[in-house]
Amino acid sequence: MKITDKGQFEAQNVFGAGAPNDVYAQYFIGHSFLNPLTDPQCGVFLANVTFEPGCRNNWHIHHATKGGGQILVCTAGEGWYQEEGKPAVSLVPGTVITIPPEVKHWHGAKADSWFSHIAIEVPGDGCSNEWCEPVTDEQYAGL
Known about the structure:
By secondary structure, the chain is mostly beta strands. The protein has helices spanning about 5-10, 135-140; strands spanning about 20, 30, 30-35, 45-50, 55, 60-65, 65, 70-75, 80-85, 90, 95-100, 105-110, 115-120, 125, 130.
């Protein structure tokens, strides 16, 4: 369900928006928020990531020599996920996206909705993230 009202969205966003995502702001168009759900040292890091309407992250790749990748569990609002060379996928609460390592992709909110997902970093060897170019306004508007 698309949600444009921030107060209504916050009532639906059961894991909470958290703090402004200032550490990674350079890799986002628009404002995002980060609420860590587990301690990074526990072995499996989960965080609720919230995007304001129109916010999206840059294209990026989760590298790993073994294992790795990312899982997105959509929890509130509506968003987009796209792998390079493939059509974008509409995201709604309950959608689960499994992103293998080495796949260039991006994700974020629809232009007219707040959006949250839980991002799960899949454990592996040699894991790193490569941030690439922004999703252009033209690419995004074409969805």
